[in-house]
Amino acid sequence: MDSELPALPKQMPPAHPFDDDKLKEECGIFGVIGLTDAANFVALGLHALQHRGQEAGGIVSHDPEQGFNSVRRFGYVRDNFTSQSLMETLPGPLAIGHVRYSTAGSKGAAIRDVQPFFGEFAIGGAAIAHNGNITNAIALRKELIERGSIFQSGSDSECIIHLMARSLQKRIPERMEDALRRVEGAFSVVAMTRSKLIGVRDPLGVRPLVLGQLGEGWVLSSETCALDIIGARLVREIEPGEMVVITAGGGVESHFPFRRQPSRFCIFEHVYFSRPDSIIGGRSVYETRHQIGVELAREAPVDADLVCPVPDSGTPAAIGYSHESGIPFAMGIIRNQYMGRTFIEPTEQIRNMGVRLKLNVNRALIEGKRVILVDDSVVRGTTSRKIKEMILDAGAAEVHFRIASPPTAWPCFYGVDTPQREKLLAATMSEDEMRDHLQVDSLKFISLDGLYRAVGEAGGRNAKCPQYCDACFSGEYPVAPSDMIEQGFALKAAE
């Protein structure tokens, strides 16, 4: 993640005026070595990762004759990295890229905050792209500035470059190890030198990173769906705490520079962030979301006529709910696929149209029916209320919400945009109070144990040592958010 410092979660500028009620993953990373015109493959990979970051993107490449080159742009990959003349400025067999979502409070972010970041050291240049969040970035930044570092951006990720510059190690991978040992929080990093592609995951493996192969070339990516778009073969996931150093002719060198710890992969990757056609832990994300719907139907049955997803993220869970319950599945809400992020400047009249600009109810299916709406999460609840009103306006007899994640009651400090805690509906209301607030006939969330069962943990959640990071649901942070605590954030009291 790129996060403006201080990084206390604030209300984010919406992707467009009517899409402000979802958690947002804040970036995706991709790297290629050993392929002619590597930047073209990186552009394709970033296009497949666009859902992870839609504000801006950047690519750095290296060519033996022309050295390092970089391009950073605001907007979609398709609007910036498809021009042949631009891509010709990024030659070489080695490149990395990054897509970014707007960060906490960073409306009007500067181009200087767009990754990858590049540093020229005495031993050579290096570029890095970071997915995650450094939870001690404020303290690190203060220390580095006091020692003479001059920051060029407001990003927490830039701390890594400055820490690398101060390392006394003779090789860049070792300098990166030094830097990352000082970092707290969550990080998956793709980096490059003149001849090497480097991938690293933090010891808990909170954020994803996978290794692929295409011919004689190697690929690192946030998700497997980006391997598919370039025809690469998935080799394996990078393990928590692992660093891989890849050379075009020498293959993959792997080691573990950090103290080994039990994995705490972000469980919300299964629920929402990852694309349904990606693979996590050897299992299809679509299959997992389908199973979430199955568990939800077992835990929270209700008499109804139709199961309808809130598109698009609620669709696999709605199908699973329908299969398990025997209630017919129907596309009762249709999404306008051409509703982009940069819609016309919203006048008050247009704002009052609410989600109708993005979603429309299929009245012929809904009228007179008892409808179960399946959505992936409830954050602020504003969009849920608007959708409920649309369903009732279309003549529905009853509206029942079923949510494919537990109540989101705590902010994430590991690379996901969340509002301040008091803005999270589940932080201030019980399930019954949320039902009354949304004015629906019933509201039920999947339990945390049910979610764990759906992702493949048959025994549910291990309360003593959770198998995933689920802090947004449980308030149990696997890495203490030290900067936030320093600024007054109150952790959950021990039970």
Automatic annotation (TrEMBL):
Native source organism of the sequence: Roseovarius mucosus DSM 17069
Active site location: C27 (nucleophile)
Binding site for [4Fe-4S] cluster: C266, C412, C469, C472
Keyword Glycosyltransferase: yes
Sites where the protein binds Mg(2+): S313, D375, D376
Gene: purF
Origin: domain of life: Bacteria
E.C. numbers: 2.4.2.14
Recorded GO MF terms: 4 iron, 4 sulfur cluster binding; amidophosphoribosyltransferase activity; magnesium ion binding
Pathway annotation from the record: Purine metabolism; IMP biosynthesis via de novo pathway; N(1)-(5-phospho-D-ribosyl)glycinamide from 5-phospho-alpha-D-ribose 1-diphosphate: step 1/2
Keywords, comma-separated and alphabetical: 4Fe-4S, Glutamine amidotransferase, Glycosyltransferase, Iron, Iron-sulfur, Magnesium, Metal-binding, Purine biosynthesis, Transferase
Cofactors that this protein relies on: Mg(2+); [4Fe-4S] cluster
Taxonomic path: Bacteria, Pseudomonadati, Pseudomonadota, Alphaproteobacteria, Rhodobacterales
Name the record gives this protein: Amidophosphoribosyltransferase
Domain Glutamine amidotransferase type-2 per the UniProt entry, residue ranges: 27-249
Protein family (similarity comment): In the C-terminal section; belongs to the purine/pyrimidine phosphoribosyltransferase family.
Gene Ontology BP term (one): 'de novo' IMP biosynthetic process
InterPro entries: GATase_2_dom (IPR017932), Ntn_hydrolases_N (IPR029055), PRTase-like (IPR029057), PRTase_dom (IPR000836), PurF (IPR005854), PurF_N (IPR035584)
Cofactor: binding details: Binds 1 Mg(2+) ion per subunit.
Reaction equations catalysed: 5-phospho-beta-D-ribosylamine + L-glutamate + diphosphate = 5-phospho-alpha-D-ribose 1-diphosphate + L-glutamine + H2O
Protein function: Catalyzes the formation of phosphoribosylamine from phosphoribosylpyrophosphate (PRPP) and glutamine.
